[in-house]
Amino acid sequence: AQSVAQPEDQVNVAEGNPLTVKCTYSVSGNPYLFWYVQYPNRGLQFLLKYITGDNLVKGSYGFEAEFNKSQTSFHLKKPSALVSDSALYFCAVRGGSQGNLIFGKGTKLSVKP
Amino acid sequence: KAGVTQTPRYLIKTRGQQVTLSCSPISGHRSVSWYQQTPGQGLQFLFEYFSETQRNKGNFPGRFSGRQFSNSRSEMNVSTLELGDSALYLCASSLWMEGNSPLHFGNGTRLTVT
Prior knowledge:
The complex is a heterodimer. Helix content of chain A is about 0%, strand content about 55%. Chain A is mainly beta. In chain A, the strands form three sheets. In chain A, strands 2, 5, 6, 10, 11 and 12 form a six-stranded mixed sheet that branches. The radius of gyration of chain A is 13 Å and the shape is globular. In chain A, about 40% of the residues are buried. Helices cover about 0% and strands about 55% of the residues of chain B. The interface of A and B includes residues 32, 34, 44 and 105 of A.
């Protein structure tokens, strides 16, 4: 069975500092990996995805994620955090091309000025 | 291009009643998925439709059902509501069912069961 783990419920970062939101996954076969962000009272917004190719994936709003097959991880990163990045971040995985998308529990990112 | 539209935004129902939620996908998108979001369980997959056929189903009781119309619009129905059904119900559409198609979410319907 496929699963996603986001080990941190909350990440606190000072504005201007780099941020990392962690994600590990378990799937059979090649993973399709995604990051989404959710602002209060809104749906999820797609940030980036990894399907194949370069392990470093760049996405929206300056975010990037690094795929590590040996560690089965897909951590979300940003070189310089903004207060407006404060939100709930979800990692998601789809095992294979036809499976449904499974989401992690989410990590609340708080960026302080 | 208009995003995914979910109606209504808010609903208050009583235990035992039934409810129907509506979702209009992005124009041209043929796949529609439904998720339930609660603070305790997070995002849980309900079902996915493509070309009016249910392609995948999550682990929810039969009280939860859905359908998709020929114009790709989708509805989900919950019968005999329970307090535990209170949640944010999210609909998402994608161009295809293929694994690399990202989901585009609506803003959800907040259902409160009293």
